[in-house]
Amino acid sequence: MTLDDIPSAAPSLARLIQELNKLPGIGPKSAQRLAYHIIRLPANEAYDLSEAIQMVQQKIVFCDECQNLTDKSPCNICSNPQRQRNLICAVEDPLDILALEKTRCYNGLYHVLHGAISPMSGIGPDQLKIKELFSRLSSRDITELILATNPTLEGEATSMYISRFLGSTNIKITHLARGIPIGGSLEYSDSLTLSRAFQGRQQF
């Protein structure tokens, strides 16, 4: 969407609609509804929203250990002494951690890869946080690595790459059981499905 597509709107409103339309999952009509909703907000709520966006841009960083998004490093999970420090669960996206934490069936650490290997999209291991994962595994007493990549071709390729690289180590490598449908995403899986997938994980 460009400004020329919304000529009847005031320039400032048209720009807001245009920027909202850039968000994932927000089409032109949804962008317009959101823009008009923001206009109707009390001034203090609109400023709070604007400030929250600015604060995220200024303060959110990668956790030095797990590569999750955080406003302090190490993050709350990595710095929690109650977590099992011999387990690491590798996921593709920070949203996957939120989904898994809701199940309350896992108490280890995480590692966010920030994507999956996809040659068609020009994404290889070097574009992901895989080197950081290997570094953690070599410097810590990790007994099990759980590969919780999405059950897609890209997710499977990423898991296979990691498992083959670590094949000569003594680390137990498991993946989630196939309670998650092929082509699905952890973010949209319900808690029961995720719990069963964790409980039925299998060794590579």
Explain the overall architecture.
The chain is of the alpha/beta class and 204 residues long. It folds into two domains: 57 residues, RecR Domain 1 (Helicase, Ruva Protein, domain 3, Orthogonal Bundle); 135 residues, Dna Topoisomerase Vi A Subunit, Chain: A, domain 2 (3-Layer(aba) Sandwich), CATH 3.40.1360. Helix content is 41%, strand content 13%. It has a five-stranded mixed beta sheet. Strands 1-2 form a two-stranded antiparallel sheet. Helix 4 crosses helix 7. The protein is elongated. The mean pLDDT is 90.
Regarding quaternary structure, what we see is single chain
Helix content: 40-55%
Q: What do we call the CATH topology of the largest domain?
A: Dna Topoisomerase Vi A Subunit, Chain: A, domain 2
CATH class of the largest domain: Alpha Beta
Strand order of the largest sheet: 4-3-5-6-7
What layout of secondary structure does this protein have?
Elements: H1 11-21, H2 28-40, H3 43-59, E1 61-62, E2 69-70, E3 84-91, H4 94-103, E4 108-112, H5 130-139, E5 144-147, H6 153-165, E6 172-175, H7 191-199, E7 202-203
Parallel strand pairs: 3-4, 3-5, 5-6
Antiparallel strand pairs: 1-2, 6-7
